[in-house]
Amino acid sequence: MSTIVKDAPLDTDHQQPGEMNYLNEDGTPNVALLQDRTPEWLKANTSVVWIALVLGGLYIFSNLTPVWHTDLWGHLSYGRWIVQNRAVPTVEPTMPLAKGMPFIDLPWLSQLIGYGLIQTFGISGIQMINGLCIVIVAGLLTYCIYNR
Fold it and tell me: Taking the complete model, does pTM exceed 0.70, yes or no?
């Protein structure tokens, strides 16, 4: 069982001094009484919004451009070799003219990550990481310049 309570009619002529009127004369809420309760650390000015939009556009653009880096495929083949042999090569394993030459594979971790991405997500995974790295660098540069 429920009870229906009807709203009392508004009488703005007999309002007490200091009493807030939450509704306008036409019955709509009085938005002048609203308070901004957004924390200061969360408020962003217009330039921050534009920077975020530009970085988002840069991310989309860098994801839509094809991966054309010529040494990418060599790094992916090194990553495949490391996964297959479960070791980092000490002699050149992939270039026929340099086979057996002493070799220090410094970017072995990025080669493994790249090979794992291409195995899991295909070329779009490589494009995503490429775009993400570009936006992170651009964002850090923008942050340093903005806080100067």
Answer: no
